[in-house]
Structure formats: C-alpha cells, structure tokens
Amino acid sequence: MKIDELVGTAQDAINVRKVFGEPIEKDGLTVIPAARVAGGGGGGTGHDREGQQGEGGGFGLRAHPAGVYVIKEGTVKWQPAVDPNRIVLAGAAVVIAALVARAWAARGRNPGQP
C-alpha cells in the first residue's frame, strides 16, 4: 500500500461516525451512542544500495463503547457504558492485594516462618 493510500484509509477510519453512532429516536427519546476511539500509524520510504526504492506503513484503530447521550424533552443526560470485564478485574485486584497484605502481616508477626 502506498503512503498516500494509507493516509486516505486512516482518514476514512477515524471520523465522527466511529465516535458517535447514528441517533436512535423512539417515543420522543433520542439516544446517541458514543465510543472511545484511538488510532495510530506510521510509514516511511527508503532505498537500498542498488537504488531500489520502497515504501510502507501501517495503521491501527481501537474503539470501545463509552456510553450514550440520552435526549428527552430538551434535556441531555450522559449514561456511561458499564464494562463488566473491568469490574471483575478491579474486584480480583482488590482480593489479590488483600491476600498479599494479609500474608505480609502474618509474616511480620512470625518472623521465623517462611
């Protein structure tokens, strides 16, 4: 892929439709989904000792649901998305930290024990 094609693809990939989805309207309520979007890329050109020239690059995009804007009777409210994986991971981290702290405390009371 040529560098100019890569830049065009990146511009098409990162647009407002990746951050905000199509509004959904029903019974006087409008919901606009939103996401966290991050991207990055790089590229370059060069030539070898024989004078042959080449170019290349790459691009990556990552998106996660962030929440929705809810519009009702002229009032806009933000409703964040709940990520159950993040909640479970945070709970596991708290349990592990408590177990480690308990082990250290027990070891402090009995210095001769391994």
- Largest sheet, if any? 4 strands, antiparallel
Helix proportion range: 25-40%
Structural category: alpha+beta
Counted up, domains total: 2
Q: What is the CA-based Rg, rounded?
A: 25 Å
Poorly predicted regions: none
Q: Mean pLDDT, nearest integer?
A: 82
Q: Please give the number of β-strands.
A: 4
| Coarse shape | flat
- What is the terminal separation in angstroms? 59 Å
Q: Can you tell me about this structure?
A:
The chain has 114 residues and is an alpha+beta fold. It contains three helices and four strands, in the order ααββββα. The protein has helices spanning 3-13, 16-19, 84-109; strands at residues 24-26, 29-47, 53-72, 75-80. Strands 1-2-3-4 form a four-stranded antiparallel sheet, covered by helices on one side. The protein starts with a helix and ends in a 5-residue tail after the last helix.
Write the layout of secondary structure elements.
Elements lengths: L2 H11 L2 H4 L4 E3 L2 E19 L5 E20 L2 E6 L3 H26 L5
Antiparallel strand pairs: 1-2, 2-3, 3-4
Task: Characterize this entry briefly.
By secondary structure, this protein is α+β, with helices and mostly antiparallel strands. It has helices at 3-13, 16-19, 84-109; strands at 24-26, 29-47, 53-72, 75-80.
